[in-house]
Amino acid sequence: MAKVLPIRPQTFTENERLVDEVREHIFRSQKSYKEIATACKVSAQTVGKLARGQTKWPRPTTLFPLIDHLGLRLLLVLK
User: Fold this and answer.
1) Exposure string (b/e) for 2-30, b if CB count within 10 Å is 16 or more?
2) CA 26 to CA 48: how far, in whole Å?
3) Where does residue 30 fall: left (phi above 0), alpha (psi -120 to 50 degrees), or beta otherwise?
4) What is the residue-level pLDDT of the chain in tens, covering all 79 positions?
């Protein structure tokens, strides 16, 4: 029988441009972390840590709702 390995959620590293863009738009929005968090269904602590650069590996499940709420568009280019 084949061995089944657990699937680890993909993460984004802190130095990626996407994370920097989300961080910048959090500040530009002039909304509180709590307002953003409520709309995105994540914790205000998570939004705050991301905005301050304290999140080492933000997950797509955190970033994608933020991207949507902040009015950003994500384009995936496959080469």
Assistant:
1) eeeeeeeeeebeeeeeebeebbebbeeee
2) 9
3) left
4) 555 555 555 666 656 788 888 999 999 999 999 999 999 999 999 999 999 988 878 888 899 999 999 999 887 777 7
pTM: 0.76
Q: Which residue has tokens 């709702």?
A: 65
For every residue of the chain, which 3-state class applies, written as one string? CCCCCCCCCCCCCCCCHHHHHHHHHHHHCCCCHHHHHHHHCCCHHHHHHHHCCCCCCCCHHHHHHHHHHCCCCCCCCCC
Structure tokens, 77: 């280019």
Residue bearing tokens 């996407």: 18
